[in-house]
Structures are given as structure tokens and as C-alpha cells.
Amino acid sequence: LLPPSPSQGPRSTARSIWNTEKEVEQANTMSKKKGKVEEKVLFGKPKNNVTIGLVGLPNVGKSSTFNLLGKLQVPAENYPFCTIDPSVTSVVVPDERFDHLVELWKPKNEIQAVLAVTDIAGLVKGAAEGKGLGNEFLSNIAAVDAIYHVVRKFPGKKVEHVEGDLDPTRDLSIIRTELQKKDTERAKGALDAEQKKIRSRKPNKEEEMKLGALQKVIDCLEAGQDVRFGEWLSKEVVYLNQFNFLTAKPVVYLVNIGKKAFKEGKGPGKKIAKWVEENTPGEPIIGYSAKYEEAFAKLEPEKKAKLQKKGIGSVIPQIIWAGYRALNLIHFFTTGKDEVRAWSIRKGKKAPQAAGVIHGDFEKHFIKADCYNFESLKECGNEAAVKAAGKLRGQGKEYVVSDGDIMFFHHNAGGPGKKK
What we know:
Number of strands: 15
Strand content: 15-25%
Largest sheet: 7 strands, mixed
Distance between the termini: 26 Å
Radius of gyration: 23 Å
Shape: flat
Structural class: alpha/beta
Helix content: 25-40%
Number of helices: 16
């Protein structure tokens, strides 16, 4: 499947879940400075091997959602902290472009792109102070690059709510407050350490930047704002990335509604949409039902297709793509009779870095990349026609990879003129 269209009906509220792709593009815009093109630095680790973590209060459906995503059976019993050690799975990212390439090339081997998802045990109020193994679980959140924030909206006395009653916006606030508290604690500790290094002398420019950036983090958090929504200079982001602030990570909100409500076409609701818009504006919200998804997964393909046409099919592909986009990832492809493969790379990366995703030596010994986009292939019909139309071009070290690029890398790793 390609990413769903922006019109998703009642299941997605607030701003369209795919507005985030546009926002990522805007965040990566280049600004000209002294004749050079400078890339805006984003929060997060500059790598392609990234993960997204399922976070929420206990008994909201996180582990059930994890089972659906990875088709794995991690513990999902009805009691707090049933998930103590985080479980990780690699989820296939569905893409019709990949399917088309496989059909075209009929390769011996086919490898799809995957999204790494971690199931993290439920947080409770007071987690920042260590309540409910909070420190351990918060460190697990620090290890991921983005967050699926699962919130419960389904009723049911059989599944105990850790806070006693059902109140989704209260639950959203609890998790957000705990993450902010932990970030504040970390920023204050880092600021104290920097101040001790300087002692009584006057700080230099770099030290002033560090002190100022940490104080801005504290001010931002104490004003109730997550780090990712602050106004930051690129040099500040580069410095602050080492602290791996929890509220610097992008969030996708997954609202777990009842099975009956989902079948009736109900979504997250206006109250949750308003909370998100007021607290973390523009971040995607997806309404789904873990119980419905479990039942849907057991159906025959014909029945699934009928329900999909009625608008009550699986939302799992939508959830996967939302996480993929939140991580700022795009696909490029390598093709041939031996193998067709989809690769993941952070948006804004250049051709040598794409080569490095395949093998580190390819980046080190990069020469050029022969490249055309999937849209050109779709328009022309096959690779020979793409070449004849002049749409296959050699690209150098400064070429920025686009989503859907089909690439052939020339390198001299292990000998002159090698190609992948």
C-alpha cells in the first residue's frame, strides 16, 4: 500500500495524519548562508537504523497492538507491568511500488523495508520519580527515536484502568507530564554540570551556547511545552541531541476505541483532537480498535476485501506508515533479476549515504549513482524506456535522495568500477 490519502474520515482527526510529511519537508528546507546551502538540523540521531516505541499507561492495549503489528505473542495479560522487558519486532512497511517492481523484475529474492517497533511497559503517574519501575521504563523510551502514544478509549470493566475510570485526555496528560518531568531533571543536571566546569571564570562562546541551550530547554518544559516545539538554532540542536530528551521525539497518537464504536465509524473524537491541537499541534492521531483488528486478521481474504470497501478494514497499514513518516524515513529501491529490495533512509540524505545503507564501504568509495524515480518507471513502462526518455541520470555526491528513487551505485570498494 502507498501512504493513505489525507482524507481518512472520522478515524483520523485534528490535522491530517499525512500533514506530518509536509512538515518534515518544510523542516528540512535549505537556507542559503554565505553562498552555501545549509541543512536545518532536526532532533534525533542521524542514522537510518531507527525505532519507534509503544508508550502509554498500563492496560490500554499496547501489547495487543504490538502483537498485531508484529504478529508476535508478547505477554498481554490484564495487569500492570506485564511487559517488563521491552520486546522488539520488525514490521514490514507495505508499499505498492515495491510490489510493482517485484512483478516487473520477477527476482530470485525480494526484501521489503521494515519498521522496528518496541513494546515498552506501561508508565504510571509518578514514573519520573521511579514509581512503577518508572526510571527503567523511561530509559527504554530514551532508546527509541519516536513514540506511538497509545491511549485507551474503549470501555469495559473486565480490563482494569490503572486510574480507576476512563478519561483519555487525563491519561494523555499523565504520560506527557512524566516525560516532561524527566527531561527537566536531565536538563537541570546537565546545566549544573556545565556551570561547575566554568566555575568563576567567564564562559567562552561555545560554553555560552551550551548554557543558553540548556536553560532554554528548562524554560520550555516549565512553560508546559515539549522540547520538539521550541525554537532552536541548528548548533543548539546538535549539542542537545546528546541528551536524548524524551519530549524531543515525534509522537503518533493511537486511540484504542471499542470494537462496536469502530464498526460504527467512530474515531478518536473531538475532545482528544482538541487536546492534541492545544498541546502538540499537528501531530497525527489514528483511531483504531485492537479487538476489531484481532478479529479482522482471522478473516478470509474475500471477507477482508468487502469490509475494506465498506471503510471498516484494517487500520494497521495506516499506523505503520504514520510511524514511518514520523521517523522521517523514505524508501529507495535497488532492482535486478537476483533481488528487488526496498531500503529505508532519513529524508534529506545524499547519494553516498544511501550507498552506505547497503554497505559502509560503498559510501566510503562512492563514485556515482545511476538513478531514476519510480514515477518515471510507471510513466515509461520499463527501464529501457526510462533510459530512452533520458530520465535515468548519473548523480554525484551532492544528490539528495528522493522517495521512490531506484538507484544503481558505482563504487571502487574491492576494485575499480564496481556496481550495486
